[in-house]
Amino acid sequence: MALGGTVIQDIETKIPQAISHYQQAERHDATHDIQIEENCRLYDIFNKSSIRVNSINHQAIDKLGSSLKTAAAAPDGIIAAVEAVDQSSSLFMGVQWNPEEMASEDPYMQGFFKTFIYECSNKDITVD
């Protein structure tokens, strides 16, 4: 994995008590909560310590790579988002859900992408 971390190859096999991270619901449906760390940019984006997300994967981060920190976790402890330890640089984030599948209906995911676009373009944007 990038930056020297490791991957759980199959959540269900390695952590049998984990919640389902490969949902049977529609891809745009949120199926579980994640807890967001307050000292993270992800918290600044959502302005909440908990949101509901979808989950369409069977792999997860096991050990974090260097210069990364956990920004959010699922109730079972699976890492749901990471950020750069040094937040003074540009946006550096990874998420373990599919916000693109939720963005057409979820205002939080729309805000997530607005932030991403703003950071990439360094310009203020408006999306109706």
Automatic annotation (TrEMBL):
Biological process (GO), any one: polyamine catabolic process
Domain of life: Bacteria
SUPFAM superfamilies reported in the protein's UniProt record: Class I glutamine amidotransferase-like
GO cellular component terms given for this protein: cytosol
InterPro entries per record: Class_I_gatase-like, Peptidase_C26, PuuD-like
Molecular function GO labels: gamma-glutamyl-gamma-aminobutyrate hydrolase activity
Pfam families associated with the record: Peptidase_C26
Stored Gene3D superfamilies: 3.40.50.880
Protein name: Gamma-glutamyl-gamma-aminobutyrate hydrolase
Organism: Lentibacillus amyloliquefaciens
